[in-house]
Amino acid sequence: MNHAAITVPILAVFMIATVGLGIAARRGRASGDMTEWSLGGRSMGLALTLVLVAGETYTSFSYLGAAGWSYTNGISGLYVVGYLGIGMAISYLIAPIFWSYAHRHGLHNISDIVAHRFDSPWLGALVAITSTVFLLPYIQLQFTGLGVVVSTVSYGAIGLTASYLIAFVVAECFVLVSGLRGSGWVSVLKDGLVVITLAVVFVYVPLHFFHGYGPMLHRLVEQKQRWLTLPGPANHALGIGWYMSTVLLNGVVYSMLPTQIAAFLGAKNTHTLRRNAMIMPFYQVLLFVPVLLGLGALFVVPGLKDSNLALFTMIGKGLPPWFFAVVGAAGALSAIVPTAVFMLVIGTMWGRSVLGLHRRTAARQKELSQAVTLIAGVLALVLTFAYPAALVRLSLLSYEGMAQLLPLVLLSLFSRRMSAPAGAAGAAVGIAVVSALVFTHHDPVFGLNAGLVGLLANLIVVVAITALRPADAPADRLAQPESPIEAEPVAQIA
Amino acid sequence: MFRNRASLCWLAGPPVLYLAAVPLVNRVEPVIFGLPLFMLWMLVATLLTPGCVALAALGDPVWRARRATAQSAVAEAQEVES
Description:
The complex is a heterodimer.
Chain A: H1 3-24, H2 34-39, H3 46-57, H4 65-73, H5 79-105, H6 110-117, H7 121-153, H8 160-210, H9 213-223, H10 240-254, H11 258-265, H12 270-279, H13 288-300, H14 310-318, H15 321-353, H16 365-386, H17 388-402, H18 406-409, H19 420-439, H20 450-468
Helix pairs in contact in A: 1-8, 1-15, 3-8, 3-11, 4-13, 5-10, 5-12, 6-7, 6-15, 7-8, 7-15, 7-16, 7-17, 8-13, 8-15, 8-16, 15-16, 17-19, 17-20, 19-20
Chain B: H1 13-20, H2 22-25, H3 37-58, H4 61-81
Helix pairs in contact in B: 1-3
């Protein structure tokens, strides 16, 4: 029997279920206001917060990139585990601070947080625009990842073009109707699928191809020594310095990425966020599965052209087509959920901090946000088709570029003296340094992550300008210390 | 900002495990339970990270206060139901 005849209907069922579930999330929520759409009404419990944080952490990278990385570059792929662990520990401190600040002042994401902190709408607009430039490539990466998964699992029956379109339509459908809450509900389905399929793959693949983990690990230690330490077999730039600087930079930046902020601000209280920080790190054990099996794939499917398919090719060879299809659905959803949230945060930032600034548009922020959510998706889709190379180049910049907003978004909440020009100049210098290094192929530079080098330059500029021309921000525009006695701040509906 | 919250120093645990230790564990030998050392270390770090956050939380007065609030809210809700 033709395998595609089994896998395509299964994929279709999961896609329809996704749209249905995402739209159903809207039911029972009375108001359709901006906060309900963009932040789930700031009322989400631990379960939805967990899956939303996980949804943006375990993207299609967990199925494709992680295995492909270890297949090509060896064990250094575990840098993801390292920075997520550190990032989540830091989120115990940072997430409640953002939550309280945003709750007190009725803010929705980093652009209006910056606008409020510096009492400066233009700076907020700049942050929204800059973030969009760095986030669009993420969406494109997810589209590309999903295209690879769907065309592989459908045995070519669904082409790349059709896959991109399906991802776009599915993600837009539920995110436009149900916003962040819809993404949360779809994440529940996605995470269920990911956990179950990775568990099965974890047990079955080594048994099938190697007769267990013992023999597989033994062969790795005997024959693939160079894959098991830094810098790995392929690229000497990925040494200890690169590993440590990347883990440090990404770990620090993780808690202020706009997608994480959306998940944090959507939680119903700060206690939910602290519990999330405690439970979430366990979930990362899952990431060892693709890294380990990507190494195993060196023996099973050597010489792959597209190393990102290392894990998928093994699953396709070793497991029945119906299960292959379920893995494909898990992979597809791992791309669709982050895509939806990325589009939503871009929409929210534009609606709040760019288009909704004028007093005549201020009342229509939700509609404007939804329009930008749609436009961002269309733009990413068009760019995926028209200039795939341009976006791949930009995606190199994404995390390292976003990192340059750290002083503006986070440090400014603790510093009364930092002025808007200081923060903006620091970010500009940081972004210039990172762009120059990345585009001249000097990343890593002297064995260090270019983003960290940029951030150091950034901080020097901020500190220097702050020392020369200190500002004096009013106390209520800074983060407030959390005290055990004080009650949770009361929400201001904005 | 973080006065009287000394237990938060446990949050330095994950950076120490994942970062500071890297130069010491970047090797294959010794192989324990079949796992090369670097991989094993990262796995141990991942399993210890939630523990570090939990230790930070258990000694944190803010955590204790909020948990007490949450529990009393649950108790009140149950009373209303019964």
